[in-house]
């Protein structure tokens, strides 16, 4: 199933709850929540208290993308704040197996992300264990960047692996997705589509509906 995950990094934080309701009411299944620590990535975004507060605005799935060093330290806190899916970066964890185990032990879905420059081999050992693989299509840290098409090879390799092993798992793609590159991204095998600036720039409800239409 194709799923749209609007990234609230591009939303108006002054009215964040309403901005979430707008896309959820328009049909977005996930809300993509980018957490940045200023160490793993240059920028700092928001953390547990904000997530806990906006959690009250919707029942949509909270897809929490942790761009933080050693996220294993905070898994329980993010689950308690309302995360339904937790994504950690392969580049940010000393012990990925332990981190995945901790996420699952908390009763939420576990996902692993890889940066554009990280070879696909780094994620292959975890594909059986995780619920979702996240392929970054920009360098993490900021919204509104240009899509890096080379990463689609990684999506194809992961999708082939899942197909060959009869696993119908999710592959999320994140960064620079717009109405123009969406077809090639879906064609490569991604089925969870993160879109920040292309949803929240302009009419967020209309953009959400258009994405969902193109993803049917
Ligand atoms: O994780 C990140 C950036 O690090 C993303 O989730 C962006 O927030 C997506 O925004 P757009 O590239 O779609 O504007
Ligand atoms: Fe993200």
UniProtKB/TrEMBL annotation:
Pathway: Carbohydrate degradation
Cofactor(s) essential for the protein: Mn(2+); Fe(2+); Co(2+); Zn(2+)
GO biological processes: pentose catabolic process; pentose-phosphate shunt
Keywords: Carbohydrate metabolism, Cobalt, Isomerase, Manganese, Metal-binding, Zinc
Superkingdom of source: Bacteria
Main EC class the enzyme belongs to: isomerase
Pfam families (alphabetical): Ribul_P_3_epim
Cofactor binding summary note: Binds 1 divalent metal cation per subunit.
Record-listed E.C. numbers: 5.1.3.1
InterPro entries noted in UniProt: Aldolase_TIM (IPR013785), Ribul_P_3_epim (IPR026019), Ribul_P_3_epim-like (IPR000056), RibuloseP-bd_barrel (IPR011060)
CDD domains: RPE
Residues reported in the UniProt entry to bind a divalent metal cation: 32, 34, 65, 174
Binding site for substrate: 7, 65, 141-144, 174-176, 196-197
PROSITE patterns according to UniProt: RIBUL_P_3_EPIMER_2
Catalytically driven reaction(s): D-ribulose 5-phosphate = D-xylulose 5-phosphate
PANTHER family with a match to the protein in the record: RIBULOSE-5-PHOSPHATE-3-EPIMERASE
HAMAP family to which the protein is assigned, alphabetical: RPE (MF_02227)
Role noted for this protein: Catalyzes the reversible epimerization of D-ribulose 5-phosphate to D-xylulose 5-phosphate.
Name of this protein: Ribulose-phosphate 3-epimerase
Organism of origin: [Bacteroides] pectinophilus ATCC 43243
Gene designation per UniProt: rpe
């Amino acid at each position: 199933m194709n799923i749209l995950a609007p990234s609230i990094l591009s939303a108006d934080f002054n009215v964040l709850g309403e901005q979430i309701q707008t896309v959820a009411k328009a049909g977005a299944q996930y809300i993509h929540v980018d957490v940045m620590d200023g160490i793993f990535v240059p920028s700092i975004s928001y953390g547990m208290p904000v997530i806990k507060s906006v959690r009250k605005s919707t029942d949509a799935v909270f897809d929490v993308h942790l761009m933080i060093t050693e996220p294993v330290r905070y898994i329980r806190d993010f689950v308690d704040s309302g995360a339904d899916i937790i994504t950690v970066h392969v580049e940010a964890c000393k012990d990925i197996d332990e981190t995945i185990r901790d996420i699952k032990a908390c009763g939420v879905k576990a996902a692993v992300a890889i940066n554009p420059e990280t070879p696909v081999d780094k994620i292959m050992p975890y594909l059986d264990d995780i619920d979702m693989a996240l392929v970054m299509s920009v360098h993490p840290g900021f919204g509104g960047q240009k899509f890096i098409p080379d990463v689609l090879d990684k999506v194809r390799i992961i999708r082939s692996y899942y197909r060959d092993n009869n696993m119908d798992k999710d592959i999320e793609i994140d960064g620079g997705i717009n109405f123009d590159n969406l077809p090639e991204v879906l064609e490569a095998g991604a089925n969870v589509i993160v879109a920040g600036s292309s949803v929240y720039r302009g009419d967020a409800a209309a953009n959400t509906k258009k994405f969902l239409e193109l993803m049917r």
